[in-house]
Amino acid sequence: VGNSSVLTCSPKSNITMVTWKISPEVGGLCILGYRANENKTERINCSDSMDWKFRPDQDLALEIRQVGITHEGNYTCEVVAPEGNFHKTYHLTVLVSPRLILSCDDHGNPVCKAATGKPAAQVSWVLESNSTPKEEGHVNGTVTVLSKFTAHSTNMINTTCIVSHPTGNQSKSIAC
Q1: pTM of the shown model
Q2: What integer pLDDT is reported at residue 113 of this predicted model?
Q3: In the chain, what's the furthest Cα-to-Cα distance?
Q4: For residues 173 and 161, what is the distance between their CA atoms, to the nearest angstrom?
């Protein structure tokens, strides 16, 4: 989320036409087209965040600026050339890094929250805990995972929560 993504399309010599067909999982079809004989581009139902990386007569790549969850879906580039028609399809999956929040509950137990990540994060503790993480799904497709540390002994001074996620791992320690 928030980064730019560039999807390339195989360059062929003497292209006649190039079409990017974007089918997001949410929302309607977007089409970016280019006709070489007229050196003309066309946009149908596309947001401003999606456009050619450069001029399509020089580069057929599509750039998505400020990628968001709504950009998830299929992206197909179709090239028409004298040698034939060529297709390349991408499936874009957007990852959202969770926020690690570590606190103490009213009973002095550490509580670790991996807030609004996509996909759901894995939450674990440095020392063994018989905690069962609870997941809460959100409308935008993100998931919050909550884990409460339950110690076998009460001699704990410092407890560390580890959040594992495809966007990177995080850890924090707390003394409750």
Answers
A1: 0.75
A2: 95
A3: 77
A4: 6
Q: Residues, the chain, total?
A: 176
Domains present along the chain, CATH in parentheses: 5-92 (2.60.40.10), 99-175 (2.60.40.10)
Question: What is the pLDDT at residue 156?
Answer: 62
Within 10 A of 26 (CB to CB), how many other CB atoms are there?
11
Contact 51, 63 (CB under 8 A): yes
Sheet holding 143-148, edge to edge: 99-104, 110-117, 143-148, 134-137
In 25-133, where do the E strands start and end? 30-35, 40-44, 50-52, 62-64, 73-81, 84-92, 99-104, 110-117, 122-125
Q: How many CB atoms lie within 10 A of CB 160?
A: 16
What integer pLDDT is reported at residue 154 of this predicted model? 58
pLDDT number for residue 120: 93
Minimal CA–CA distance to 98: which of 49, 74, 50, 133? 133
Task: Give the residue-averaged pLDDT of 9-30.
Answer: 86
Read off the pLDDT of each residue in 31-56 and give the average, rounded to a whole number: 88
Question: In a 3-state reduction of DSSP, which class is residue 71?
Answer: helix
Bridge-based pairing state of the strands 99-104 and 110-117:
antiparallel
